Amino acid sequence: MKKQNPMTQDWFATARTLSEALPYLQRYAGAIVVIKFGGHAMGDAEEMASFARDVVLMRQVGVNPVIVHGGGPMINDLLGRLNIRSDFVRGKRVTDAATMEVVEMVLSGAVNKRIVQAIQDEGGKAVGLSGKDGGMVTCEPDDPDLGLVGRPVAVNPELLHHLFTGGFIPVIAPLGMGRAGETFNINGDTAAGAIAAALKADRLLLLTDVSGVKDASGDVVTQLSPAHVRELTEAGVIAGGMIPKTETALAAIADGVRAVVILDGRAPNACLLELFTDHGAGSIIRDSAPQIARRG
Fold first, then answer.
1. How many domains does the chain contain in total?
2. Which residue range is the domain that position 181 belongs to?
3. Would residue 219 show up in a list of annotated catalytic residues for this protein?
4. Is residue 196 within 8 Å of residue 257, measured between CB atoms?
């Protein structure tokens, strides 16, 4: 019996994958997907390129992706080089005027433009913004102890809809403006959740350095309802750094986002696996039943 060339087998596998993805390509055509991008992948050229390629592919098949990014390690690095002390209260950076100047420089400048460039290197059209542009994100002080750390109270998505129409991919730094014109630093997950809610996004993807929400046995829970999340939190199973992410997810769903997925951004093609395969990726949190049966 004649053996198939291994390369031919790869071609068949690729064709089968594309065929199986068709219902999801149809399902997400025209959908808005907000992606919180951060972690070590932002500093790794190969992982940045892979992420950018996935985002460009999403736009190519009709999805409207919106990238909201962080940049904590880069901010820490520049603050250190400038000998500016950075304190934290309850896990959040205290942001005074000097720190805010550095935060805005790093987020709206170096980090934002690096992501824009990566997307354009893969053939996409990206526009770098912050929440200050177009009056997009209005904030109030989050906590007097934190200084210029803001809590979004209003999001105007008009500019983003114009960018979608032009085929552009928005890349947003998590900064906002106060009612008196002051600049606020916003937690990246919080900013992504608020923007997703204003857009009534189909999906909010929170890329992290863990594989998802885990149960008491340490296994990833692939599907959760808001009630299930609250139960796991009250039981202490959801704890530490996962709490802010699940709180962001619950708030976004309550404000009209169809579903939120917490997934490992280090996994190759994580966003594509979540959107366009039966298996999905990470932990999906939603109120309603899926439009396409998946994940058993």
1. 1
2. 40-49+70-187
3. no
4. yes
245 is catalytic: yes
Q: What is the C-alpha separation between 234 and 239, in angstroms, rounded? A: 9
Helical axes 242-254 vs 226-234, angle rounded to 10°: 150
pLDDT for the residue 273: 86
Task: Kindly report, residue by residue over 11-23, the tens digit of the pLDDT.
Answer: 666 667 666 777 7
- Is 74 inside any structural domain? yes
Helix axes 112-121, 45-60, angle to 10 degrees: 60
Q: Please check whether residue 219 lies inside any domain of the structure.
A: no
Residue labelled with tokens 């609250």: 230
What is the tens place of the pLDDT at every residue in 38-93? 866 676 788 899 999 999 999 999 999 999 999 888 898 999 999 998 888 776 78
- Quick check: is 36 catalytic? yes
Among 128, 131, 176, 189, which one carries the catalytic annotation? Answer: 189
Catalytic residue among 70, 72, 124, 176: 72
Question: Is 125 annotated as catalytic?
Answer: no
Q: For the domain that residue 169 is a member of, what is the CATH number? A: 3.40.1160.10
Give the three-class secondary structure for 293. coil
Active-site annotation holds for 189 = yes
